[in-house]
Amino acid sequence: MISNCDIPDVYEPGRFHILELGVYIILDSFVSVYFSGLRVHGGTSPIGPKDSPPVSWAYRLNVILYPSDVFVQNTGVTALAAFPHYRNIALKGFLPAGPELKNR
Question: Rounded CA gap, 67 and 64, in Å?
Fold first, then answer.
């Protein structure tokens, strides 16, 4: 998960909880968290001061990344990167991910 936010300094930035481990990550600025979504997890929103209205420009963007079946099940080949201008004809322009990147 990648989280990025732009909120006022007086806001509580919110937290991402991984309950099984009993830990939380403060979600201020740019944060990247690698975890198993099969475990109980959750988060809180940014919280502004009680006496002030929310600002219109504040935001948090969370991007959830799921692994490809190729990596999870250790089957087939997937593209790790593309070569510029399709220079390597033997690999059809792609750099395949090797077995060291796959879950065994």
Answer: 10
Residue whose token pair is 């909880």: 17
Q: Going by C-beta distance under 8 Å and a sequence separation of 6 or more, which residues neighbour residue 38?
A: none
Does an H or E element contain 39, and which? none
Amino acid symbol at 25: I
* Alpha-carbon gap, residue 10 to 53, rounded angstroms: 12
- CB count, 10 Å around CB of 79? 14
Q: What is the pTM of this model?
A: 0.64
Tell me: do 54 and 74 sit in the same domain.
no
Residues 59 and 77 in one domain: no
Range of the domain at 40: 2-63
At 29 the pLDDT is 85
Where b means 16+ CB within 10 Å and e means fewer, 47-59 reads ebeeeeeeeeeee
Q: Each residue of 57-76: pLDDT tens digit?
A: 999 999 998 877 766 676 76
* SS3 (DSSP) at 66: coil
